[in-house]
Request: fold
Amino acid sequence: MNARDLMTTDVVKVTPETPLRDVAKTLLTHQISAVPVIDASGGLVGMVSEGDLVGRKRTERETRSEWWLMRLAEGEPLNSEFLAHLQSPLAVAREVMTSPVVAVSEDTRIDEIAGLMATHRIKRLPVLRDGHVVGIVRRADLLRTIGGGVSAPVPLPLEPRPGPVELTEETGAGLPPPAPAVAPPLRPDETLSVADFRHLVTDFKEDEDRSRARQRRAAAEARRRAVRQLVETHISDAAWKALVHGARMAAERGETEFLLLRFPCQLCSDGGRAINAPDPDWPMTLRGEAAEMYLRWERDLRPRGFHLTARVVEFPEGVPGDIGLYLAWG
Reply:
């Protein structure tokens, strides 16, 4: 069973510039506790929850969030400090949203979903297809499925995938040998001319151009596959500890930073432009494994003084290529 079997496909969305009062109305109207934030290109840039709206201080957590949301949505009098914040020019979804966002693909398994919710202490996960939100998996959906019941779907056992077939002497027995390449007949010397040679040069260059075009298409498809894999890859506790250990060993060698992840710029929602600029909001563009790594650093290592930087590490044909995510302590 995977995210496709659990997710709610009727997804309500807001934009980064949606006023907080309208976000509150959206949560109340649709009886939901959080909403994804989508940019102009349709990419996921954040999530806004009840907790983001009402604040996460102890006194605010003790207040019923629905009551706060109702007052916010209806414009009733609020706490003076909170009201001043709402009336400021920055009182929009972009200011309070959680970003980057942990997300999954439609094929992410139920056990991975449960692990992500536990690791990142979240109640819902957006489901992405080609970088766009197509559903939401809620913790309640997960618990209902795990808890069983008459209506609960039963996960089917995974069937082993057939491995690649290796061609051996036995499997290839009886097949006719490939036909040898036949060279074209040579022209008599007296028929050769400069024009003939120039045509040969032109044909060679055209063949080279077609070959380079095929290579570019193959490289682009390889990058798309890599991006899909990175979107669907999630960091385990063991993998994170191994990276931290690698950083420690780098420090012992006298180094001041450690490469945590190298990934194609297409994994970013803006193709890596914010990182290349650089724009201080670049973390909001991270997706998949890179986003999870950022959140791990923010939770575990940032309070201890470690820095996280991102930069373009190569520029094929003058445009941004792969991006490196670095843990720094120098």
Strands lie at 34-38, 44-49, 104-105, 124-129, 132-138, 257-264, 307-312, 322-328. The CA atoms of residues 7 and 161 lie 26 Å apart. Residues 57-67, 149-175 have pLDDT under 50 and may be disordered.
